[in-house]
């Protein structure tokens, strides 16, 4: 069994190293975690906040970078009426927080795998998929395609990095799908992902293709249904979904 999948995970105290903006409402938070044993691209952590009166709130967050010693990174979208995200996005370097992980063994990508990989993200669902792209940049030989659905250009996480990866990496194709507003000269009409956004030459269903979908529950279910309609085997599709807490 991978060390990163070992059960019985302890709570650890993590320290904020730095925090950088990704969009107007999201930040990437770099944490140092003493004793961290590594993780796989696609895994997540549980994070716990404890108030002075003893009240605790716990949430799960995907890891946005591959293993890097005792350092991890989360990208957190601020939800104004949320219990946890407003606090996380205001944390300063040196502040501490409790977490445990890594968690999950199904929604992961390993560099030794040779199958082509299609990533489909809705909004902040890009986070664990970005860890896979970053892992592929370090190691691996698979061809990747990313279909990323966002409301507007301002909502694209990791925008500069994705642009650089697409320019410099011959193993990667990126298709951005805008649902509310698109940049000038964008040929596609704005709107939710359609079947023709997923139907691309050289990315047809086959035994050598694996699909990872991450986003809100409705988005994931809709995309998975379209891919199955197109001919993809359900066994080739792996999903990770999220929704409102509480």
From TrEMBL:
MF terms (GO), sorted A to Z: 2 iron, 2 sulfur cluster binding; oxidoreductase activity
Key words of the record: 2Fe-2S, Iron, Iron-sulfur, Metal-binding
Annotated ranges, domain FAD-binding FR-type: 9-109
Cofactors required: FAD
InterPro entries, alphabetized: Cbr1-like_FAD-bd_dom (IPR008333), FAD-bd_FR_type (IPR017927), Flavoprot_Pyr_Nucl_cyt_Rdtase (IPR001709), FNR_nucleotide-bd (IPR039261), MRET (IPR050415), OxRdtase_FAD/NAD-bd (IPR001433), Riboflavin_synthase-like_b-brl (IPR017938)
Pfam families referenced in this protein's UniProt entry, alphabetically: FAD_binding_6, NAD_binding_1
Superkingdom of origin organism: Bacteria
Name of the molecule in the record: Oxidoreductase
Taxonomic source organism: Mycolicibacterium agri
